[in-house]
Amino acid sequence: MKFEFDGHGPVVDPSASVAPTAVLSGNVTVGPGSHISFGAVLLGEEAPVTIGAQTIIRENVVVRGSHGHPVRIADRVLVGAHSALYGCTVEEAVFLATGVTVFHGASLESGAEIRINGVVHVNTRVREGVTVPIGWVAVGDPATILPPNEHDRIWQIQRGLDFPGTAYGVERQPDGTIEMRDITRRAAERSRGIRKPVE
C-alpha cells in the first residue's frame, strides 16, 4: 500500500517491484530494479527515505526516516528480513543479514557486512569492507566492534554518542536516565499528519 503524507507521496521506478502487503508512506523513493518484499514498511513521514538501484528489502523490514535524519540506501544493497533501519546512510554493496538494527546518524561504508542480529549504534561509522559478527555491536566513529556481553565497554563509547538527542531531540537527565514523557510527546506530535492512500 502507498500513502501520501502531508502532501508527499512515494515515487517508485517503473522497473522496481513492491509487494502488495508492503507499506510506503510519505517521501519515499525506490530506484530502478529494486524490490520491496512482503510486510516491509518504508516511512518517509519525518524525513525522506531513498532506496537506490537493484537494492533488495526483504520481508518485514522497517526503514524509517526520522526528524533530521533521512535514510539513504545506495545501489545493490541487501537488507535481510526483520531488520530495522532508522535515519541512517548505507553505501553501495552493503549486506545486512536477518534481524540487523541500524540507528540514527549511522553510516555503513561500501562493502560493509552486518551479520545476523548485529547492531550499529547512533552516530557510528562502519568502515568500508568491515564485518560486524553475528549478534555483535558496532559503536563509535570509527566503529569499535564488541560482543553483546561487553555492556560496560559499549556504554563507555555509546554514552558520548548522544542517543536521546540524536534519535529524539531530548537531553539525557543528569542521572543518566531518559525522560520518556518528552520522547513520547515528541514522537506523537511528529506522527500527526494527513495520510491519504495512493492508487
Task: Report a brief summary of the structure.
With 199 residues, this protein is mostly beta strands. The protein contains 3 helices and 22 strands.
Written overview of the protein:
The structure is a single chain. By secondary structure, this protein is mainly β. The chain is built from 3 helices and 22 strands. It has helices at 151-158, 163-168, 180-191, and strands spanning 2-5, 11-12, 17-18, 23-30, 35-36, 41-51, 56-57, 62-64, 71-73, 78-79, 84-86, 89-90, 95-96, 101-102, 107-108, 113-114, 119-120, 125-126, 131-132, 137-139, 144-146, 195-198. The strands form 2 sheets. The chain has a 15-stranded mixed β-sheet that branches. The protein is globular and about 50 Å long.
Could you list some keywords that capture this structure?
single chain; 199 residues; 15-stranded mixed beta sheet; globular
Largest sheet: 15 strands, mixed
Helical proportion?
Answer: 10-25%
Return residue spans where pLDDT drops below 50 for at least 5 consecutive residues.
none
Mean pLDDT: 94
Sequence of secondary-structure elements: EEEEEEEEEEEEEEEEEEEEEHHHE
Q: Give me the Rg, rounded.
A: 17 Å
- Summing up helix and strand content along with how strands pair, one would put the structural category as mainly beta
Count of helical regions: 3
Residue share in β-strands: 25-35%
Assign an overall shape: globular
Number of strands: 22
First-to-last CA distance: 9 Å
Secondary-structure topology with pairs:
Layout: E1 2-5, E2 11-12, E3 17-18, E4 23-30, E5 35-36, E6 41-51, E7 56-57, E8 62-64, E9 71-73, E10 78-79, E11 84-86, E12 89-90, E13 95-96, E14 101-102, E15 107-108, E16 113-114, E17 119-120, E18 125-126, E19 131-132, E20 137-139, E21 144-146, H1 151-158, H2 163-168, H3 180-191, E22 195-198
Parallel strand pairs: 1-4, 2-4, 3-5, 4-6, 5-7, 6-8, 6-9, 7-10, 8-11, 9-12, 10-13, 11-14, 12-15, 13-16, 14-17, 15-18, 16-19, 17-20
Antiparallel strand pairs: 1-22, 20-21
